[in-house]
Specification:
Strand content: 25-35%
Order of helices and strands: HHEEEEEEEEEE
Distance between the termini: 41 Å
Number of helices: 2
Radius of gyration: 18 Å
Bound molecules: copper (II) ion
Shape: globular
Strand order of the largest sheet: 2-10-7-4-5
Structural class: alpha+beta
Helix content: 10-25%
């Protein structure tokens, strides 16, 4: 049944290309792109952000060091599971901030972390890699990993 499989693949590719063509619709273009910035520290700012379905998030790495946006698939219901994206720092990107965009098309949560400055424990929760990683507060608390949460509410017209 090779020809049937090839046909199915063709339909899938057609669907993907149609989805791609529909993505920059007028409605999406009118919505502002929401930004999550990495300042010159190992953290995402803001930590938590609430958006609407159809909105796009842009991560901007203003740090000199590289960081990553990695999906915590266990907690994600907003899609984009298996995301593992390098966000180059200015030192490795010709002085420019590395950027990465994701558009969220349905309601849910997108929990993510940086695999350089956090890892998942046995319960799949992000933890800081130790005293030299993650977010360090003035009290010497090293417990917070470099992570963030996007909450996607239904679209305005839902
Ligand atoms: Cu990082």
């Amino acid at each position: 049944m090779v020809h049937r499989r090839v046909f199915r693949m063709g339909v899938l590719l057609l669907a993907i290309s149609l989805l791609g063509a529909a993505a920059p619709s007028v409605t999406a273009a009118q919505r502002p792109i929401r930004q999550v910035v990495v300042p010159e520290e190992d953290r995402f700012a803001p930590f938590a952000l609430t958006i609407r379905a159809g909105d796009t998030i842009e991560w901007i790495n203003n740090d000199t060091d590289d960081h990553t946006v990695v999906s915590d698939d266990v907690f994600n219901t907003a899609g984009h599971n298996h995301t593992d994206q390098l966000l180059p720092g200015t030192l490795s990107n010709s002085g420019n901030p590395g950027t990465f965009r994701l558009r969220f098309t349905h309601a849910g949560t997108f929990v993510y972390y940086c695999r350089f400055h956090a890892h998942l424990d046995s319960a799949n929760q992000p933890v800081a890699p130790g005293p030299d990683g993650g977010i360090q507060d003035s009290n010497g608390n090293f417990g917070t990993p470099m992570m963030g949460v996007i909450t996607v509410l239904p679209a305005h017209d839902d």
